[in-house]
Amino acid sequence: MSAQLTWLGHASWQLKTTQHTLLIDPFLDDSPTAPIKSRDAYADFILVSHGHFDHIADAAKIANRTGATVISNYEITTWLTKNHGVKNTLGGNLGGGANLPFGRLKFTLAFHSSALPDGSNGGNPCGFLISLTGGPKIYFACDTALFSDMALTGAVGLDAAVLPIGDLFTMGPEDALEAVKLLKPKKVIPSHYNTWPPITQDANKWAERVRAETKAEPIVLAPGEAVSV
């Protein structure tokens, strides 16, 4: 079973299977690159990697409208329930995971920060390793620095990895290339770049290096474009 992965600009993604729709880090209404607004987004599950505004901004709005379950760390899910009335949540923590209707989800390490928009404690930032039932294994690194334990995530055999390349706030192109070498995914897709001038990058030039220096297939998407994984 394949799945369709759509870039919604910045670090926001839609992962759609035949039965389920997941949104990752929905930042749509205030994003200058999002192809849709939150009112147009649908989800069964919403994954929030950390508390920064450009990753959590529209999670509650979409969850409250659609009834989606928000999956994040315990601190963030508690905050969303208490402050935004989100009814359906699943709070976990690093290294943990859960069996869900779409497959298996694991909270992976991410080296970043996670303060919530109002300054509350956003818990530990994370990435997500998603193993779809009967389908691909997809790793969303989310906002992170390069770290050598990415090799352990890659050891499961990744069909696709989504990596930040923007620099300044996350890995830049050089470190993201090293991450590809550690993860060894079949496909790799850049994220978290070209939203604002400080994180402007030439993704096609990065893809050329990925193609030349690794066995991964780089996929560069424009906001709104999709790829099968």
Plain-language structure description:
The protein starts with a strand and ends with a strand. The protein has a single domain (4-223), classed as Ribonuclease Z/Hydroxyacylglutathione hydrolase-like (Metallo-beta-lactamase, Chain A), CATH 3.60.15. The mean pLDDT is 98. With 229 residues, the chain is an alpha/beta fold. The protein has six helices and 14 strands. It has helices spanning 53-56, 59-66, 74-84, 150-154, 173-183, 203-213, and strands at residues 4-7, 13-16, 21-24, 45-47, 69-73, 89-92, 97-100, 103-109, 126-132, 137-140, 160-164, 187-191, 217-218, 226-228. The protein is globular.
Question: What's the SSE blueprint?
Answer:
Layout: E1 4-7, E2 13-16, E3 21-24, E4 45-47, H1 53-56, H2 59-66, E5 69-73, H3 74-84, E6 89-92, E7 97-100, E8 103-109, E9 126-132, E10 137-140, H4 150-154, E11 160-164, H5 173-183, E12 187-191, H6 203-213, E13 217-218, E14 226-228
Helix pairs in contact: 5-6
